[in-house]
Structures are given as structure tokens and as C-alpha cells.
Automatic annotation (TrEMBL):
GO molecular function: guanyl-nucleotide exchange factor activity
Pfam families, per database record: RhoGEF (PF00621), SOS1_NGEF_PH (PF22697)
Protein's name in the database: Rho guanine nucleotide exchange factor (GEF) 3, like
Location relative to the cell: Cytoplasm
Basic and acidic residues compositional bias, start-end: 1-14
Keywords: Cytoplasm, Guanine-nucleotide releasing factor
BP GO terms, sorted: intracellular signal transduction; positive regulation of Rho protein signal transduction
């Protein structure tokens, strides 16, 4: 569930560290609604649409459990480049190069099919049947419609590169010229956080839940839900660097692509990093707006100054209560999920948030009771060992009591510990740099003495945290 952001080295999967926001969807619980019109559409869709696409679920995410193998069916007709040619006299390395380029081309074709499908069988029917308003659909689907011609353009360029023997010579310049188009992904990906929240909220409505379930059960969906389809562009984006690296490995030194591929790889990596950064900022802003404060003292300036989230997800306190915890750039915030008057999700701040620069982190060994033995009674009935717990406390803030927290498993616990350590160190470094900057503007010997004492205290506390 780590906020996840996209990484060039790995295609998004259930392993991604992103919000582990608990779904309140009533799917599977609500009695199916008898809607003949919806049923007829589903039947006609199943009869008229068949294609050979593959998609992997790409939930954005807070801290998640260990990834499970995908149960979604693979594409029916996977084809390799060598299946499309009758004969060739290429070396094994060049064959591999052609296979990767063919995979790039086919991936574009399959993405176009999927995005066109989403528009045809989700957006248009829901608008026509007034299942959602045009405004709601616009928020959920965002600028997805504008991505289709963008990828059609690349597909057209790649197909023109294939010669009479169905081989591609130079691909680097084509990619270099096309990659800047992917800056359009900033808008689409930044919209996804709010889109997912609204979609989850609308799933509580019977007509919406019934329509989406009907689509998911139809053959054209390959058992993927709407969000899996909406998240495909992000999955595709982070795959480009991987494909380029593979092409580069199979490109001989004397090949014309040898000079352009490194530049193309650097360009796409910078675009992915920029999209990732902007998406993280949008996610941070979205969840900041969703916080509900019970006391004015909870509105720490560190929360509003934070630009991104390290991670967020579900943890239990020492009373066994489920909390949704946000580790912002500069503050740790414990919340209790709830709903506003419109049915939207809100996170009510629980107790006093902690500035990261003041956090003391203590890992609680398995078997020890956290906080006066209350963990043992809350989670195990007093019999088994307490596991996967850690404690956070704050120095210098009288209202901030220590918090003993329990993760779902050891994997999730280690993710939290790693993120907290990183947040603490970076926040203290930032604080130290700010102080040094202030002292350079006001060279008062007394202030230097105070600074030395403060920095010494930070060092001692960091040593305690590492232990």
C-alpha cells in the first residue's frame, strides 16, 4: 500500500506499496436488481465483442500484503514475431530484438482495444442509461478518451517501420519523437486517486453495482473489473523503460539504434519520474483534503506542508481498533475512516498527529505486550504471542502519547518500519538544513550554541531510533 508510486524497474502489480484503503463496496452482498435493459446490453455485448487482450490488475496502493499470483485469464491468442514470418536468416540476438519490438507493437494494439472497449461498454451505456451523471463519469474516466489516438499514432508509426520481411530496422528515432506525447499521462494519472474514491462510493448504489457486476461476469471483461481497465494506461507507461532496456540488450554495437536508444531510455525514464512525482503530489493533496479534524490543535503545519505520502494503510491500535494511518512527508496521522453527508469517504483524525522530525520509533519484538499488555488481550485472548507490532512516540509534544500499532503481517510491518525510518531521517535533515540557513542569516553566537545543542539532541535521538 505504499504510495505508491510507479517504478521503472517493475510493472505495477498487487505488490505495489499503495494505500490499503479498505473497500466499503457492497458488491456480492446486495441482492441482484432486476434490470432487463442492463441484462440485454450485457448479453449483446457478450455476443458481439471478442478480442485477444491481456490485462493485469494494477491497483494503486498503500501498504499491501505479499502479492498473490494473478488469477486472471491470460490472452487467448498470444503470438510471437517468429510466428508471423515464414523464414529468416537472422541471428539469435536479432531474433530476440525483433520479438521485443513486436511485443511493443502488440502491446499498443491491445491497449487500444482495451481502452476502446472501456468507452464502448462502460462509459457510453452508463451515460445512456443514466446510471451515473455525465459529470460523475467525467471524473471517473478522466482524460482516458484522449489516450486512444495517442497510442494509435505510435502503433501506426511502428507498423510503418516493418519492412517487406516484417522486420524492423531502426526504432530509436521513432520512440524519441513519440515519447513526449506521454506527458498527457500527468493529467490522467493525477485524476486517478479521486476517480477511484468516487467509483468506490458509487458502487454502493444498486444500479451501479449491478451493471458493473454484470459486465465483469461477461466474457469480454476477462474477469477484470472497471478499475482494472482504467488503470491499464498507468501499467503501460511504466513498461516502456523495461521494453527499451530489452531492445537495447539485443542491439549490436554497430546498429544505428545504438546511439539513439540510450537517449530514448533517458527520456522515457524522466517522463515516468515526472508523472510519478505529480501523481504523488495529487494523492497527497487528495488525502489531506479528506482529513476531518476534531480539534484545532490537530492541524499541524507539517501536514499542510507535506508534498507526498510515503505510505498509508490499515493498522490496529492496542485496543484492537482498526485505524487508517497516513505517513505524509512531514507528519504521521492516525485516522478513523467514516463517511460525509454525501456518502463520500472521510478520515477523522484520531488523537494527535506526530511531526516526523520528532518521532521516536521502537520495534516491539514478537511476544512482547505493547502498552501494558493490552495488545495481548485485544488480539489474542491472552493466549498466543502478540506479533507484528511497533511503537511510535513524540518528544517535546505533551499531547502526543505513545502509539502502539499492529500490522496485518510481518511483511506489512517491515514496510511501515522502513518508511518510518526514511521519513524520520529525511525530516530531521530538512529541519537541520532549515536551522543552519536561519543561523547563517543571523550570526549570533548564542544562536549557534542553541543550534549545537539541538543538533546534538537530534543525533542522540536518531541513534536511539536505529537501535
Amino acid at each position: 500500500m505504499m504510495s505508491d508510486h510507479m517504478k521503472e524497474s517493475e510493472e505495477p502489480s498487487n505488490k505495489r506499496v499503495k494505500p490499503v484503503a479498505k473497500s466499503n463496496s457492497l458488491t456480492g452482498v446486495i441482492t441482484p436488481v432486476k434490470t432487463p435493459a442492463l441484462k440485454r446490453i450485457g448479453q449483446s455485448i457478450s455476443r458481439s465483442i471478442s478480442f485477444r487482450t491481456e490485462a493485469r490488475p494494477l491497483p494503486p496502493a498503500p501498504l499491501r500484503s505479499r502479492p498473490k499470483a494473478s488469477s486472471f485469464p491470460r490472452r487467448r491468442n498470444s503470438q510471437c514475431w517468429s510466428d508471423t514470418v515464414e523464414s529468416h536468416d537472422l541471428t539469435a540476438k536479432e531474433i530476440k530484438r525483433q520479438e521485443v519490438i513486436y511485443e511493443l507493437t502488440q502491446g499498443e494494439r491491445q491497449l487500444i482495444e482495451d481502452l476502446s472497449l472501456v468507452k464502448k461498454v462502460y462509459y457510453e451505456p452508463m451515460l445512456k442509461l443514466d446510471i451515473m451523471t455525465e459529470s460523475e463519469l467525467g471524473q471517473i474516466f478522466g482524460t482516458l478518451d484522449s489516450l486512444i489516438p495517442l497510442h494509435e499514432d505510435l502503433l501506426s508509426r511502428l507498423e510503418r517501420l516493418r519492412g517487406s520481411e516484417k522486420t524492423v530496422g531502426e526504432v530509436g528515432p521513432t520512440l524519441m519523437n513519440w515519447f513526449p506525447c506521454l506527458e498527457a499521462y500527468v493529467t490522467y494519472c493525477c485524476n486517478q486517486v479521486g476517480a477511484k474514491a468516487l467509483l468506490d462510493q458509487k458502487k454502493h448504489e444498486k444500479r451501479v453495482e449491478h451493471f458493473l457486476r454484470l459486465c465483469q461476469e461477461s466474457s469480454f471483461s476477462r474477469k477484470l473489473d472497471l478499475w482494472n481497465f482504467l488503470d491499464l494506461p498507468r501499467s503501460r507507461l511504466v513498461k516502456y523503460p523495461l521494453l527499451l532496456k530489452e531492445i537495447q540488450k539485443c542491439t549490436p554495437p554497430e546498429h544505428p539504434d545504438e546511439d539513439t536508444l540510450p537517449d530514448a531510455l533517458e527520456l522515457i525514464q524522466s517522463i515516468v519520474a515526472e508523472v510519478n512525482k505529480k501523481t504523488g503530489e495529487a494523492e497527497c493533496q487528495f488525502y489531506r483534503r479528506g482529513l476531518g479534524y476534531l480539534e484545532e490543535s490537530q492541524r499541524l503545519p507539517e501536514i499542510q506542508q507535506s508534498r507526498f505520502l510515503y505510505c498509508h494503510g490499515e493498522l490496529k491500535n492496542n485496543k484492537g481498533q482498526r485505524l487508517h494511518v497516513f505517513l505524509f512527508e512531514l507528519a504521521l496521522v492516525l485516522t478513523r475512516p467514516g463517511e460525509d453527508r454525501e456518502g463520500g469517504q472521510v478520515f477523522n483524525v484520531y488523537r494527535q498527529p506526530l511531526p516526523n522530525a520528532l518521532i521516536n520509533l521502537e520495534e516491539i519484538p514478537d511476544g512482547e505486550a505493547g502498552g501494558g499488555g493490552t495488545f495481548r488481550g485485544a488480539f489474542t485472548g491472552g493466549n498466543d504471542k502478540v506479533k507484528n507490532c511497533f511503537r511510535v512516540s513524540s518528544r517535546g509534544r505533551s499531547k502526543a502519547h505513545p502509539y502502539c500499532l499492529q500490522a496485518n503481517d510481518s511483511f506489512s510491518k517491515q514496510q511501515w518500519i522502513t518508511c518510518l525510518r526514511q521519513a524520520i531521517v529525511q525530516s530531521r535533515d530538512r529541519t537541520s538544513q532549515t536551522r543552519q540557513s536561519q543561523f547563517s542569516l543571523h550570526p549570533d553566537p548564542a544562536l549557534y550554541h542553541i543550534a549545537e545543542l539541538s543538533l546534538s539532541s537530534d543525533t542522540d535521538m536518531a541513534d536511539h531510533t536505529s537501535r
